[in-house]
Structure of Alpha/beta hydrolase:
Amino acid sequence: MSRYLKNTSTNPQARILLLHGAGAPMDSDWMNTVAATFNEKGLDVVRWEFDYMHRRRIDGKKRPPVKAPKLLAELAEVVADLASWDGMPLIVAGKSMGGRMATLLQAQHPDLPITRLIALGYPFHPTGKPDRLRVDHFPDITCPLNIVQGTNDTMGGKDLVSSLNLPSDIVITWIDGGNHDLRPKGLKAGEVMGHLADTVRGIAI
């Protein structure tokens, strides 16, 4: 496979595949900060774009994500490719849609060599549609899952998520006042990336 963006580490303990969200590419400021921070924690970081986002990079035309089965097929190929590199433990993390696709893939294909999942701002439901929950597959996940979620996330805030009967082994780290980008309300523009980096550093891996 091509189209990988890598942040390599000296003597890494694991490799992390970091997936973008629905609307921003793999090298957005948000993704750059998260990748650099995971790298500081001793992880090799590999970023890659789903095909619809990669085509936008080529021709500049904005496209919505394609249907989940197509995204999952693409992601399965990438996971299999990364796992073939050197046998290093593979973590899959993703922002919003990327995190959702990672959890769906592992639930549907527990044989894939994914050792851990990290969802950064999990989209528990589409914006404004809390009745359309996206958690039915959670009981089928067979590896550790850590969700980092803002308490004010419009796609799943603390009040709603705390009311759900989720598997007890899912670890949710709450960002007080955080929105879907994990940014607390009122944070100054110059403080956003530093706060995001601190949030990522606090994730137990």
The beta strands are 5-7, 14-19, 43-48, 90-95, 116-120, 145-150, 171-175. The chain has a mean pLDDT of 95.
